[in-house]
Specification:
Elements: H1 25-45, H2 52-64, E1 67-68, H3 69-76, H4 80-92, E2 96-101, E3 104-112, H5 114-134, H6 142-154
Antiparallel strand pairs: 1-3, 2-3
Helix pairs in contact: 1-5, 3-4
Length: about 160
């Protein structure tokens, strides 16, 4: 900026503080909320010996069933190399296996193992009290409303993205 160019007012600068009206405010608040939730979920998963990146893949596998490895990246927000490392970890831990896809021997599908299902279920049990703590300050009906709004935001109706 030059000396002749006025500086933006402090009120228009992006923050994640309550009352911020900048165009970045929503993204910054969602980022802060994500960090808070990720920290709590990491705490729940730590005793089980897995990280959020591992659990994200188990979540997809539990939901979709066997999934081609290349489809796990977009489903979890990870890149190809990252997914390969996570699936390697899951295989080493006995939580998932790679299997050949009939008709294309170059493609591998990843499948959750019975041990993976047990860990998946145990993670939900471990996370329940921590998740309750996250929303403890919300009033009557606010948790459901927050969930509904975030669901609509994360999964917009076709044509609204």
């Amino acid at each position: 900026m030059t000396a002749d160019t006025p500086h933006p007012s402090a009120g228009s600068r992006a923050t994640d503080r309550p009352g911020d009206t900048s165009p970045f405010a929503l993204g910054l608040l969602l980022r802060r909320a994500h960090w808070r939730v990720a920290g709590v979920m990491t705490e729940a998963l730590r005793p089980l010996g897995v990280e959020l990146r591992h659990f994200a893949v188990l979540l997809v596998l539990a939901d979709r069933g066997p999934t081609v490895q290349r489809d796990l990246g977009p489903a979890t927000g990870s890149d190809k190399a990252g997914i390969m490392r996570v699936v390697d970890d899951l295989e080493r831990m006995g939580l998932a296996v790679r299997k050949a896809v009939p008709g294309d021997r170059r493609v591998r599908a990843v499948e959750i193992t019975p041990r993976g299902v047990e860990l998946f279920d145990a993670a939900h049990v471990a996370a329940e009290p921590l998740a309750e703590r996250l929303v403890a300050d919300l009033g009557s009906g606010e948790r459901e409303r927050l969930t509904a709004l975030l669901t609509r935001f994360a999964h917009p109706a076709e044509g609204e993205a």
